[in-house]
Predict the 3D structure of the following.
Amino acid sequence: MILWLYSWLMWLAQPFLRRKLLRRSVQEPGYGQCIEERFGRYAQPVPAHDGPTVWLHAVSLGETRAAAVLITALREQLPHMRLLLTHGTATGRAEGVKRLEAGDLQAWQPWDTPGAVQRFLSHFKPDLGILMETEVWPNLAHACQRLGVPLVLVNARLSDKSLRQAQRLAWLARPAFAALTGVWAQTPQDAQRLQSLGAKVKGVAGNLKFDAAPNAAQLALGQQWRAQLARPVVMFASSREGEELALLQILGRVPSHAANVQWLIVPRHPQRFDDVAALIEAHGFAVQRRSAWGQGGPPAAADEKQVIWLGDSLGEMALYYGLADVALLGGSFEPLGGQNLIEAAACGCPVVMGPHTFNFLEAAEQAELAGAALRVADLAEAVAMAGALCFDRPRSEVIRQAAKRFAQSHQGAAQRLGEMLASEWSQRDLSK
């Protein structure tokens, strides 16, 4: 009865989803592509294939990048596999194209109605389904269980906040997690929380994002640009709505914070690039956008206003971390849970984070303990701390080296997961 009610609500929401996708496609055209796939309707047939079809769902950009190292490990363990990649966001799908080989498939994640899920599974006929991190959908999980399609959750994480939310919807969440064939968690704490929801936790494999090496060419280019600058650079990495406004207000109240360093804001969501640019100008600053730089790097300021750089490009975080002397961790200065600091650590960029890191709690705590990141009480303290670090070269170098060691010490999850998955499903003839 409960699943029926949920399915009915999801069915009723379909017109609103279509309207949302069309609105998003104005700024991000990728959302307008293949919309019918969202509802389990596909234009192209699936060619016959001798090996297994391994379906991997990576909802967004970060999950897709982390999945890349797992895909490599799976191809080594299951050399005849055909990959089916699904996504929920336009940035994830664009990144996923880079991971496809001849014969592989790509589609949108089906909207979680019984009809769309059934059409998806009937069309692609996956032999194994792999969900990344948090993407557990009730109808999808139940349909796979009913049809005998092994469905696992890997790189799984569940914060205390998400656990409390799931417990409030236990009538829906517990059966969905119980329907999964197996779960591999990032940390022992994640494993305990997932088990409390009825998930069959098979082990703790670590975090795949530690295995995703930053783009070396981008990192080198950013470092080259930084070496040519007269002032140090402080980056607000993956900033969220409300945080840019708070930063600009601080810089307006304390002009020396803006004058002594070059500020770079990289918003988390690309649809907000124009809004953030307008917000910067509304506070009396000039804007230089990365999209106008080309390969020559940021040009000299054209007027007397204090210039703030806007990172309005996708897939260049390694370049930005290479360019920055210090990074503020977006999402951690409002109660949003914080963004992932692992890529910053891998690039050797010192991180200053706020009090709200519950989305990546263990990684944030481990980084702080390792000396790879510093925690402050609020954004004003973070701005002051970042400015001080820029001019304290010995201390910032200590943090930079600690960050690199921290990132390297947690690698290996991809190989462990690849071996575990191949072993777990070898009896199902996936290796043939």
The domain at 216-409 is CATH 3.40.50.2000 (Rossmann fold). Residues 143 and 160 are 28 Å apart (CA to CA).
